[in-house]
Every structure is written in structure tokens, then in C-alpha cells.
């Protein structure tokens, strides 16, 4: 089975590494070729375009940036579905819109191509170590057929339903993280302002009802002033926007997630903060706080 | 050492049980006497008033409902500080205002009484089992002197600074929980609306970056329709109001916590929901959702 892999960013490179380690033939394409150098050295085969990659592969996997990138990769003249042939399978692993996942599934079907949506979590470390969580939507038989491919990249793989449900599961996950991130940042900002020792606050929360992964992992980084991305704020903002678009279509109000989206939007608008990790949100709070001065 | 204990609710009763088990003499008072019956059977000695209890005790501990109850217990004519004598120690373990904790400390000092603020977390189970987390503010020597008393009731005991800092630590904890609770409820509401299996969503979040105690513990209860309090929504609302009062005094904006306070305020205004646990917040979302109908 020849796999075509589109997107050799931090996530894609780790995933390709593990597909090669599982003895798959992997064709690769990336908008910026030099970002594919490391996987080419490992044995991946460079393709000059998405169209060429599509023609030379049985299963085509994409993990790109934003929904507009997904649209281009699938639907443009040079795109996957314009150049695919019956019997192929496409798997979009970008965290993207459930509606777009449905559209890919429908248009794929018309050309005899099967499809899955399969966004991931677990970050660059999970991608490198093959321990990603993979949330799959789409036909059950195709999901089962693709299990060996997923197993090469992830350690927790679940199907949540038909096309789009993998993306929906990822969104439910991101809504939860919106809560833990705003909670941890506001807790640390409050602690700082009232003169609590923040390390003690992080210790305290880790043992009780306030315990959460975000505080356990990002709390200590914030303390060290380490704002490098585990997960980039601008990508999280993209996810929250997808959530709110879906929620709006369903007449569903999510006030907590809405506030998180507004905060990350303000943060990402500042060019100095746009490329920071999600824990960098504390800089927005600190700057608003500085502007107003304190009466502490 | 004779301990006077004011407040024999669910929390107080468990704590008194453990003080008796550690061989302390415990005088008790409660606004509603029958709620003290069980600890009296265990050996606690009933007192007819706060004033009488104060006169007969060396260390006076209070754990009552709201800041106004704390004020009454400490400052009324029949209250602790009006009837205390030099050399006594008072410990307010109610989750209450840091400003009020400071006022108690100052007024206690003028009558030669030492004081600590020492709110707890860990719920009724922690109170019964003597495994509470206790967050202490106040003088270091008094804190050390009271260690055996705290050890009888808790398993994780930390001092966060001078008077009021125990309450501030508890507030930092509650801000974190505001995030995990709104996140988990919105995640489950979204999951339900888009047709995801909620049990699968709870499983998924438990293994990754979205992991948190609230989802792990309250998620399964929500699935079973179990809204009985681990922690009562109206008490959580009280805590969030204290947070926002402090934040407002400090010119500190906490948009996530503000939204959580607004949501719990709406929930608690409904008499059917006022006595539910914090996970009952999902009923507010479901009712708003029902009213608007769906286009799902």
C-alpha cells in the first residue's frame, strides 16, 4: 500500500517517520519543500504536486493548517479529488470543520473514493513517538481497513460515527481545553495579583478537585516564563472558531467557549504573541492589568 | 486543649468526628440544634450559644455558610470576639472573603486573641475521612501550634502567608474549577447536540490534554442524571462572587470567571436547581437550548 502524505510540518513529519518505520512506502508533498527534507532523508519520496502525489498513492493523508488549506488541497484543480481515481481512500487529519469533512466525504463518494476524517491530539511529542490520540469519523469498514495505518501513528484510536464525527469529537475536546486554559490562566493571574506564591498554587490544585492537565503541564512553564508552543495559540483559536461556527448553526450558546475565543483572538492579534503556545494567554491578562495599574 | 466548634453541617460533622477521634474535648454549637445530634452522640458537648461556647473553649473553629454568617458568628453581641478572652485562638474554616479574614485577624488582635483563616477543600468525603486539603493564612507560629488540630482533620495542610492568604488560595482554586466546570458542561452539551456518544467523549478527554478532575468525576454523574451535590452550586456561586469582589477591588478582569458566575447565578435563581451540585449547571444549558429549539 502506497501512502501519499500532504503536510510535512511538525505533526506531519513525526507521523511520516512512524509510517516509514512501519514499512509503508510514503510519497510526500509540502507547500514549502525544504520542510520535507528530513522525511525525504528518512526515505519518503518527494512528489512535485498534490496532483502527482494523488496519482501515485493508494491512501492519501493530509494534515495542513487551516480549513481553507484543506479546501485547496481537496478541491482545487491541482487537488486530491480532482485527480483521484476510484478505489482510493482519503484521510484528512487536519483539525478542521465537521461541515468540510462532510463535503469531502460527499464529493469523494461521487468519484468512487472512500474517506475518513481523523484529527489528532497529543502534540509534536505524540506525533514523533507514535502515541497520538486519533478521533475518526466515517464508514466503519474503511475505518477497520485503515487500522494498521492509524496504529503506526497513534496509540488511542477511536471511531465516533459517520463522516464529520471525528472532527466533532475533536471539537468537544477543544471546548474542554478552553475551560482548563482560561481557568488556569485566571487562577495564576489572581494568585500573582494577591501575592500568593504561584508554585504553591500549582501544587495545591494538582491534588484536588481543581486538578487538570493544563495546570499540571503549562503551570510550571508559565512560572519559568516559557511560552514556546506545545500547542500554538493561533491554531487553538482556529479550533474555537470552528466550534462557535458549528454551535451558531445549531443555535447553541457556549458562553465559556465564546469568552475563550475572544481572549485568544485578542492575543493572536498581537504579532508578538501570535506564535506563542496557548499558555501565552497570560501575557494578554498581564498587559491589560499593567495598563490599568493596580491598587494592590 | 478544649476546642469549640461552630457549624455542624455536613463538613463540620465530619471534622468534629475526627477531632473527637484524636481525643480532643469538643464543645459544639449550631444554629439548628438537631443537626448536632450525631456529633453529640459521638461525645461532643452541646453549648447553648456561641458566647457560652467561646467562654468554655481554648481554640474556636467555625465553618458556617456565607460571609454574613461568619460576620454574625464573630462580631455580633453574642459572637466570638465579643465574648473571647486573651490567649484564645480562633480559626475560621468557612470559605469566605479574604477581606473579612483580615478584619477578624485585626479585631482578634485588639482583644489578645490569635487567629487563622483556614478554608478547606475535599468535600464531605474528605471531612469524614480526615483527608481535607486545608489552606491556611495567618501567623506562622500560631499555624505551627495548631498543626496537631489541622492534622486531625486534613492530609494536605499548607500555609500560604499572613491573614487572608488561606482564603486567597481557596479563591485561586475555585477560579480553576470555574474553568473546568464550564468547560466540561459545554463539552458535553456540544457532544449531545451534534450526536456524539457522551461516554466516549468522557473517555477520550480522560487520556489527553483535556484531562481534568471535574470531567473524570462529574462527567459520569451527568450521564446517569445524578445531580446530587458533591459541592452545592449555591456555595460555588458564593465563592465566585467573593472572587469577583476581590478582583474588582484590584481592577483585575477575569472574563472566564465572570461568565461562570453569571451562569451559576442564573442556575441558582431557579428554585428547582438551587440545591443541586455544580454539575447541575447542564440543566441551565439544556433548558436554554430547548427554548430555542434546534435545527439539528
UniProtKB/TrEMBL annotation, chains A, B:
Q: What EC number is given for this enzyme? A: 1.1.-.-
Keyword list (alphabetical) reads: Oxidoreductase
Protein name from the UniProt record: NAD(P)-dependent oxidoreductase
Amino acid at each position: 500500500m502506497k501512502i501519499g502524505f500532504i503536510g510535512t510540518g511538525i505533526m506531519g513529519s513525526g507521523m511520516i517517520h512512524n509510517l516509514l518505520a512501519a514499512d509503508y512506502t510514503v510519497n510526500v508533498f509540502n507547500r514549502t519543500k525544504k520542510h520535507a527534507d528530513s522525511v525525504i532523508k528518512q526515505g519518503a519520496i518527494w512528489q512535485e504536486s498534490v496532483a502527482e502525489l494523488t496519482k501515485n498513492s493508494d491512501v492519501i493523508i493530509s494534515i495542513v493548517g487551516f480549513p481553507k488549506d484543506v479546501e485547496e488541497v481537496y478541491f482545487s484543480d491541482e487537488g486530491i479529488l480532482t485527480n483521484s481515481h476510484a478505489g482510493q481512500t482519503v484521510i484528512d487529519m487536519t483539525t478542521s470543520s465537521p461541515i468540510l469533512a462532510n463535503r469531502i466525504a460527499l464529493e469523494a463518494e461521487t468519484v468512487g473514493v472512500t474517506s475518513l476524517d481523523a484529527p489528532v491530539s497529543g502534540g509534536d511529542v505524540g506525533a514523533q513517538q507514535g502515541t497520538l490520540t486519533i478521533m475518526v469519523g466515517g464508514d466503519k469498514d474503511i475505518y477497520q481497513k485503515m487500522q494498521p495505518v492509524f496504529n503506526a501513528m497513534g496509540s488511542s484510536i477511536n471511531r465516533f460515527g459517520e463522516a464529520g464525527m471525528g472532527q466533532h469529537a475533536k471539537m468537544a475536546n477543544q471546548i474542554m481545553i478552553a475551560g482548563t486554559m482560561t481557568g488556569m490562566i485566571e487562577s495564576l493571574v489572581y494568585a500573582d495579583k494577591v501575592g500568593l506564591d504561584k508554585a504553591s498554587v500549582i501544587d495545591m490544585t494538582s491534588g484536588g478537585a481543581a486538578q487538570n492537565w493544563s495546570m499540571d503541564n503549562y503551570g510550571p512553564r508559565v512560572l519559568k516564563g516559557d511560552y514556546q508552543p506545545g500547542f500554538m495559540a493561533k491554531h487553538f483559536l482556529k479550533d474555537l472558531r470552528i466550534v462557535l461556527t458549528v454551535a451558531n448553526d445549531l443555535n447553541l450558546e457556549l458562553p465559556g467557549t465564546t469568552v475563550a475565543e475572544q481572549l485568544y483572538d485578542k492575543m493572536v492579534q498581537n504579532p508578538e504573541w501570535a506564535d506563542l503556545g496557548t499558555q501565552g494567554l497570560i501575557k494578554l491578562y498581564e498587559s491589560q492589568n499593567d495598563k490599568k495599574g493596580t491598587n494592590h
